[in-house]
Amino acid sequence: MQGIGARRIGRVASSSLALLLAGTAAPASAAADLPRVEGVALQPLAAQVGRLLEALRTAGEPRLSDVERGELSGLLAAADEPAALRRIQELLDPHCLLGVHVNPESRVKVERGPAAARLVEQGWRLFLVKVHNEARITPPLRFASPHAARVHRRVDGPDPPLSITAADLRDRWMDGAMYDERPMTRELSGLALEYRILQIYSRDAGAREAAIGFHVGEGTADLAFRNAVPVLFHADPSVDLTLRVADELGEPTTAAFVFRDEQGRVYPLPSKRLAPDFFFHAQIYRADGETVRLPAGRYRVSCTRGPEYFPQERTVLIAGAPGGGAPVESFRLARWIHPAADGWYSGDHHVHAAGCSHYTDPSRGVEPADMMRHIVGEDLNVGCVLSWGPCWYHQKSYFDGKVSPLSTARNLMRYDVEVSGFPSSHAGHLCLLGLTEDDYPGTTRIEEWPSFDLPVLQWARAQGAVVGFSHSGFGLETKDPSVPNYEVPRYDGIGANEYIVDVTHDAVDFISAVDTPWPAEMNIWYHTNNAGFRTRLSGETDFPCIYDDRIGIGRVYVKLDGPLEFTAWLAALKAGRSYVTEGNAHLLDLRVGGREIGTQGSELTIGRPSSVRIELTAAARLEPLAEGAAPPAPRTYWSIERARIAGSRRVAVEIVVNGHAVARREIEADGTPHQLDFDVAVERSSWIAARIVASAHTNPVYVLVGGRPIRASRRSVQWCLDGVEQCWRSKSGALKPADRAACEQAYDCARATYRRLLAECEAD
Questions:
Q1: Is residue 642 in some structural domain?
Q2: Domain-embedded: residue 39
Q3: What is the pLDDT of residue 600?
């Protein structure tokens, strides 16, 4: 949000609410006059009123007549100070909704002013506030109202209590804040008289009462509880804008929309949103034929549907009266790429319906229908909604071991589990996909689960689930940003830490990428590939925890030979018939020596060292740079901007053999697909993949020379062995006593495996 009301306003401190709720004056109607203030020096007052007039020009309201504005401008340079002071108040006081008196002891009293209390449904109105500051203090003037309290809250725990009632939701109908954008100042000026701007939002139409109060810090309420007055508002109704939304084929669909007015304010107001609109988003998601309610005005509207589509922007004008005809806006979306048309289906295997940015009150997270709206609106073919620690006991009720009945032929949703907020979380969070049972054997409470990862992975796999580590780079960061590097990480995070042990037990199908730093994710994956393990790479967002902008910021594209079906999609993910991306770069149909990625074990056998042909289709999309302009700073760990070749619209596609780039081709990132081929020498058994650094990465094809297994680097295996030792030092202190012996045995087996592999390595 930008401009007036850009901050998340209306957050009222509990102490301020207590002051307002302790007592207010009797209901007041608009007063005839506010008290006149005398003895104020005209020069500083004129400067403050000048800033006020400039702010009102920007804001557009309260609307002063040309006559009033002209006379005020003349008074700012008047020679007769008492007369000018009196006339300024005569002109501005009628526009004041409220008057604020700060007495010499800094106690605040509020009274009703003469301005009409008119609001607009789903919109903002601005009012003047007259401030008589006898104390001559300079803190910010703060707005407070129990009717502006939040309609949601976040609390911790797997079974949080609910405290926001239906009556609370009804009564918390408004929001408000002082307008302190430039040219206004955040603090009071210290003058005995000045005028401030109050902005008030109404969620509802019709008559609504609110207690409006102010304070200048803790303990500044008037002793008679006169720091607030009840005001009866009347809010004019807004109109429904109908949105017609069609995809590139003209078929009805769902898209994301952001509505901003000319002051940059976002609609509907985020702080008053409940699902399906998320309060931590600027965007809302609307299907074809659905509506958004807006007051009259001019809006800048953006429309998107995930990274495969071109974003659109336009200006929309909403006329005033509801009887003037129902407005309609049509949006026809256009793609720059369509991988699903060739069997490459996108998925985000790690999103949540509770915890982190979600509220846990007035409901324990959000419902499946709300999540499905976002999956379709971001054009995700597969969305895996994972129940975890927060609201676990409520959210797990949506798990049934099946694809949700809300799914469509093009967009599948399934509820599964992230092991996070459980006793083993310290060792690394786990994604368990395709479960048939979501309670670990013998447990009824989270606290009863194992305190290390291996038994959880083995239990999930025994029921046919596909399993891997979440946000893999956390705890694996190194000072050396190169990949691969040989610095041993601290193993002190919640990423793929105990993976270094569990991979030796053939218990891990994938590690996740895109939502943590690229070098940390790739470094451990490259080293374990060099040791001969075949864990796949997958993509995730961890919405709304690591990224809460939208789901699908991190994606995996999985190739299917038939129609979209969850079990087949999950099997292909496990087989590595996939690539990972942040959505703006694509590496399709990788073939090495004719062997397609993810098929026949992704394995190519050659009799002796030789050259192999590598083929793929690469496409990327960067916004062009204006001449002399700096590229935008990346906002995420993986970003096409990190791959931009300086001063250009190009990125580099690299072929990686055993963790090192051996070939490179630059392509124009204008959305055009490029057919690329490379000839690469293979001297020993190797893994081969393609990448666009920090934007896209394929899974490998494994090339076996003379039937020998991949043992590409003795240094990599030693790095893995050292990692087991460091992981034990970091994690063993959090084990339950009952788990310690079994965990020690798992680590001992990992040590033995790496020592054996070390002896088998062909190269340093």
A1: yes
A2: yes
A3: 77
- The string of pLDDT tens digits covering residues 122-171 is 999 999 999 999 999 999 999 999 999 999 999 999 999 999 999 999 99
Are 591 and 618 spatial neighbours (Cβ–Cβ below 8 Å)? no
Q: Give the separation between CA 45 and CA 49, rounded to whole angstroms.
A: 6
pLDDT value at residue 223: 56
Q: Is the pLDDT of residue 3 over 90?
A: no
Do 23 and 48 fall into the same domain? Answer: yes
pLDDT in tens, 555-586: 999 999 999 999 999 999 999 999 999 999 99
Contact predicate 141/131, CB 8 Å:
yes
Q: Which residue has the tokens 């919405």?
A: 543
My answer on whether 250 and 372 are in the same domain is no
Instruction: Determine, yes or no, domain membership for 751.
Output: yes
- SS3 assignment for 86-136: HHHHHHHHHHEEEEEEECCCCCEEEEECCCCCEEEECEEEEEEEEEEECCC
The total number of structural domains in the chain stands at 4
Per residue in 181-230, pLDDT tens?
A: 889 999 999 999 999 999 999 999 999 999 999 999 876 766 556 788 99
* Domain span holding position 349: 340-581+713-764
> DSSP character for 165?
-
- Which residues lie below 8 Å from residue 696, measured CB to CB, with a gap of 6+? 579, 580, 581, 582, 585, 586, 587, 620
Whether residue 323 is predicted with pLDDT greater than 70 in this model: the reply is no
Torsion-angle region of 298 (φ positive above 0: left; ψ -120 to 50: alpha; else: beta): beta
Flag whether 472 is in a domain. Answer: yes
The residue among 507, 367, 352 whose CA lies nearest residue 421 is 352
> Exposed e or buried b for every residue in 653-667, given b needs 16+ CB within 10 A?
bbbbbbbeebbeeeb
Bridge-based pairing of strands 510-513 and 536-539 is: parallel
The DSSP line for 280-311 is: T-S-EEEETT-EEEE-SEEEEEEEE-STTB--
CATH number at residue 639: 2.60.40
Q: Are residues 193 and 274 in the same domain?
A: no
Last residue of a domain, one of 202, 236, 270: 236
What is the rounded distance in angstroms from the CA atom of residue 688 to the CA atom of residue 705?
Answer: 13
Position 31 pLDDT exceeds 80: no
Answer yes or no: do 124 and 223 share one domain.
yes
Least confident range from 107-116, 293-302, 304-313, 599-608: namely 599-608
Say if residue 491 is in the same domain as residue 367.
yes
Same structural domain, 243 and 225: no
- 86 and 226 share one domain: yes
For 423-456, the pLDDT digits (tens) are: 999 999 999 999 999 999 999 999 999 999 999 9
Within this chain, do residues 355 and 436 fall inside the same structural domain, yes or no? yes
